[in-house]
Design a protein that fits this description.
4-stranded mixed β-sheet, alpha+beta, 313 residues, 2 domains, globular, Beta Polymerase, domain 2
């Protein structure tokens, strides 16, 4: 059967084995996270996935990307716009497949050095069977932290709040005192104690007293998790970091973007200058609508950071 006739659910499972094989061929270690791996471990209720998430050895991700490119999987995103945290994954697409590949070299909320994070999780890896093949995945405790962070960074969404509640229920049902202590220690090792604080408290995990964030890391995390237009917040925060002399050029770029970036953002955009002008006007209107909330968000986090600095004790 041609790959183009694959159902999305079948494609996602087969793409896991494709990425695993590509990792073996390029001598790149990787762990599958989220999606079918989480379902099979009982950490997530069965649901449709549209992509494959893999956490890859950061030092060798470029080798895996090269092998995937040989197989027709291309990352077309220019990644030129500012982000609150550095880009954590590359999205690969193949016209013959209905799913995407998200190739991570880090995960938001795990603030230990990226290679340290990967080595720590790799040392705890387990295997599961997907599409009749054994593939490496994060062990349940590590996977639990990753999934909790995935919810916490968008906790203002009802779907994420519901999923976090399910993870808390799973942890209370399946983890004993020793396993909760292990989970807390792992969070400390990965410098996720603060980012996972609410989750760890909810499931009764003991405090580890390790993994504290720097002021910048704490600010970045607060900006990421506050409900707002993340893209607009990223632009405002980047502007705050730049010297005033750089503002005019930066603001022009933010409003205009290049033709390549616009067409990647809107693949269905018709050819011609008129279509580009229309896309830029739509972008400008969206930006202006999002700007007040983004400014409030950035100011609110700045105020919270100042208050925490002067708080006694």
């Amino acid at each position: 059967m041609p790959v183009t006739e694959l159902a999305l659910s079948d494609a996602v499972l087969l793409a896991h084995t494709l990425v695993a094989r590509a990792g073996e061929e390029s001598d790149v270690r990787l762990l599958f996270i989220k999606g079918p791996a989480a379902v099979q471990q009982g950490l997530r209720k069965p649901r449709s996935s549209v992509d494959v998430d893999a956490l890859v050895d950061p030092a060798r991700r470029h080798l895996l990307m090269a092998r995937l490119a040989e197989l027709g999987w291309v990352d077309e995103h220019p990644y030129t716009s500012p982000t609150i945290l550095p880009m954590h994954s590359l999205a690969c697409r193949n016209d013959a497949w209905p799913c995407e590949l998200d190739i991570h070299d880090r995960f938001p909320g795990l603030f230990a050095e990226h290679q340290v994070v990967f080595e720590r999780l790799w040392s705890r890896r387990v295997s599961i069977r997907l599409a009749a093949q054994e593939v490496p995945v994060a062990d349940p405790a590590a996977h639990l932290l990753v999934l909790a962070l995935n919810c916490l960074k968008e906790i203002h969404l009802s779907s994420r709040a519901s999923e976090l509640g399910q993870l808390e229920e799973w942890a209370r049902e399946h983890l004993d005192e020793a396993e909760l202590r292990d989970l807390s220690e792992l969070a400390g090792d990965l410098r996720a104690t603060e980012t996972c604080e609410d989750f760890l408290r909810a499931i009764g995990a003991p405090e580890s007293g390790r993994g504290s964030l720097t002021a910048k890391e704490r600010r970045d995390w607060l900006l990421l998790v506050r409900p707002s237009d993340t893209t607009a917040v990223s632009w405002v925060e980047e502007l705050r970091r730049l010297p005033p002399s750089a503002w005019p050029r930066y603001l022009w770029y933010a409003a205009w973007l290049s033709e390549v970036e616009l067409r990647l953002a809107e693949p269905s955009l018709p050819p011609g200058r008129r279509a580009l002008v229309g896309a830029r006007m739509r972008r400008l209107r969206r930006g202006l609508r999002a700007l007040p909330a983004a400014l409030r968000n950035v100011r609110g986090v700045s105020r919270e950071m100042r208050d925490s600095d002067v708080r006694p004790g």
